[in-house]
Every structure is written in C-alpha cells, then in structure tokens.
C-alpha cells in the first residue's frame, strides 16, 4: 500500500514571513481600533474579569504565577542561567552573547511598540490587579515566548534527549499559554494584547535563529 507523502514542513524563512504578516495585520487592526476586534476584546475581558472577581482563590494563584513565576524578570534570570551554562559547560561565548542580545533587543522592540501604539489598558471599577505602561503588546506574553522559544531551540541545537526535550516543550507551552491567560484573567490586558505578544515574540525568535544560522554558516 502506498501512502501519500507528508506535506513539506515550512522553512524558517516562510515561518518568519508568515509571523511578520500576521503581526503587522494585528498591529494595524489594533492601531486602527477595528470595531470587531475591539468588541471581541471587551466581551472576553468583561467575562474573565467577572470570573476573577468572583473566584478569589484562583485569582490569588494567578497573581503569584504572573508576578513571580512568569514575571519577565524571572524569565530573564532563566536566560542568564542558560548563558552561564553555555559559557561554563560549552565555552560557547558567541552563543551566550547572541542569547543576551536577542533578549535585550526583544525588550527594546516591545517597549518601542508600546510607546508607539500607546493603547490604554482595561479599566475596572473593582480591579483585582494593576500594571504599568501601555497595553499592546503584552510584555509578559512576549517575553515568555521569546525566552521559551530561544531555550527550546538551544536544547534542540545541542542535541537534548527525548525526555528532556518533551519536558522542556511541555513547560514552555504551559508557560507561554499560562502567562497569557493570567494577564487577561487579572484584567490588565486585552486578549489581542496577549495575541500580539505571542506573535511578536515568535517573530523575534524566528529572526534571531535565522540570523544565528547564517552567521554560523
């Protein structure tokens, strides 16, 4: 019996172009305050905020996760630990510098977009949490995507075993999805802010990996 061939996997360049187009489209819709997007954001945010006010226990857990476990500073410290490992165990100075530069440029990119778009955060009469700076994109979501994406790629590039790879992938998916959920649940971001953080974070990873592979060749 002949089975149909598997469809070819998208190349890194194709993935980067797709992420760039999707990010640009969402950025345009948010900047233009496209009514269907704004309406969907508000409906989802009102629902999740009502749940957050009613469920004090889960809200408290989400605050701990977003303020300590998945906080951008915590994730950057994880990156710093990975850099130390690269230098100490692999003598990979250039890879460590590439990791540091990508995280720094990703943060600069994120803050620049926040200032340019200047989107207001949700405002509630009974807030369960607070946050600073503009809303789009979500810094927590973007930082988690960048850090987890880079570390996953490094594990793959250094030939991590199957068990380690699966564990890291599970932790990365939980972290990236979880931090987005907590930001919307706590009422400090619109859903499209989180989506923007995911897309832009993935774009930063794709561009950084492409640049690294070209430099290595």
Automatic annotation (TrEMBL):
Pfam family, one: PAP2
Keywords: Membrane, Transmembrane, Transmembrane helix
Keyword Transmembrane helix found: yes
Protein name per the record: Phosphatase PAP2 family protein
Domain Phosphatidic acid phosphatase type 2/haloperoxidase: 96-209
Keyword Membrane appears in the UniProt entry: yes
Transmembrane segments annotated in the record for this chain: 95-113, 133-155, 167-188, 194-212
Protein's organism: Streptomyces prunicolor
PANTHER family the record matches: AT30094P, SPHINGOSINE-1-PHOSPHATE PHOSPHOHYDROLASE
């Amino acid at each position: 019996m002949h089975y149909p061939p598997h469809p070819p996997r998208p190349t890194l360049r194709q993935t980067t172009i797709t992420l760039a187009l999707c990010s640009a489209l969402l950025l345009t819709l948010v900047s233009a305050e496209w009514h269907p997007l704004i309406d969907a954001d508000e409906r989802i945010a009102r629902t999740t905020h009502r749940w957050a006010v009613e469920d004090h226990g889960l809200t408290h857990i989400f605050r701990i996760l977003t303020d300590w476990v998945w906080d951008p500073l915590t994730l950057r410290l994880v990156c710093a630990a990975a850099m130390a490992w690269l230098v100490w165990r692999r003598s990979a100075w250039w890879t460590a510098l590439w990791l540091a530069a990508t995280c720094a440029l990703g943060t600069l990119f994120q803050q620049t977009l926040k200032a340019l778009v200047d989107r207001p955060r949700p405002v509630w009469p009974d807030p369960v949490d607070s946050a600073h700076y503009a809303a789009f994109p979500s810094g927590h979501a973007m930082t988690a995507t960048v850090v987890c994406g880079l570390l996953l790629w490094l594990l793959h590039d250094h030939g991590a075993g199957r068990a380690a790879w699966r564990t890291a992938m599970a932790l990365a998916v939980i972290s990236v999805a979880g931090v987005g959920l907590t930001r919307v649940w706590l009422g400090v971001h619109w859903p499209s802010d989180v989506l923007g953080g995911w897309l832009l974070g993935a774009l930063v990873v794709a561009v950084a990996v492409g640049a690294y592979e070209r430099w290595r060749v």
